[in-house]
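Need a sequence for this fold. Nothing fancy.
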């Protein structure tokens, strides 16, 4: 399949794209089941089974993602199309057990961002995830927690919080207050 992108026309590696999309489906399967339980809905699995399978899937996906990065670098649009590149980012987001690997992927993704070959919003989310995982303040306010008393979403600490919406807009993110509303309990 030929695909037009910022650097011209290239051939999509459909086998790699399919592999990444399969990894992503497995990643999402357990998160969807977890969300069902967390929202009081019924699931075919108990919480322990979900958590065990999510951890196993994340571990297997991380091993495969490391091989993909070693062979291809960060798979951008020109290699695996938009769907494959965005799915790969989601897999990297869930590699919290290896923050150094997330940082490596972020560095490689940064190069693809400069070539308009990856998603700027995804980059911001991964950047914040890495910073929070390293114990630093985030840049874009994408990493949030739910306050157990108020049930409202609050971002983890943000660097230069007065400029956060300016940074968010530059990468295509909605204003922070609108973003936080997404996490509010459904009435």
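Here you go.
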């Amino acid at each position: 399949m030929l695909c037009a992108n910022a650097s011209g026309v290239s051939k999509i590696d459909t086998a790699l794209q399919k592999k990444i999309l399969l990894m992503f489906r497995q990643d999402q399967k357990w998160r969807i089941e977890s969300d069902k339980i967390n929202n009081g809905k019924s699931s075919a699995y108990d919480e322990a089974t979900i958590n065990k399978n999510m951890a196993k899937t994340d571990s297997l996906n991380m091993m495969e993602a490391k091989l993909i990065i070693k062979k291809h670098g960060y798979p951008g649009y020109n290699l695996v199309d938009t769907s494959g590149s965005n799915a790969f980012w989601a897999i990297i987001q869930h590699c919290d057990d290896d923050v150094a690997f997330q940082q490596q992927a972020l560095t490689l993704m940064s190069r693809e961002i400069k070539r308009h070959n990856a998603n700027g919003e995804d980059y911001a989310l991964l950047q914040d995830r890495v910073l929070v995982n390293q114990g630093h303040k985030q840049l874009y306010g994408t990493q949030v927690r739910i306050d157990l008393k108020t049930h409202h979403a609050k971002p983890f600490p943000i660097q230069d919080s007065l400029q956060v919406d300016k940074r968010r807009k530059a990468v295509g993110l909605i204003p922070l207050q609108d973003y936080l509303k997404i996490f509010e309990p459904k009435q």
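For context: Residues 13 and 79 are 6 Å apart (CA to CA).
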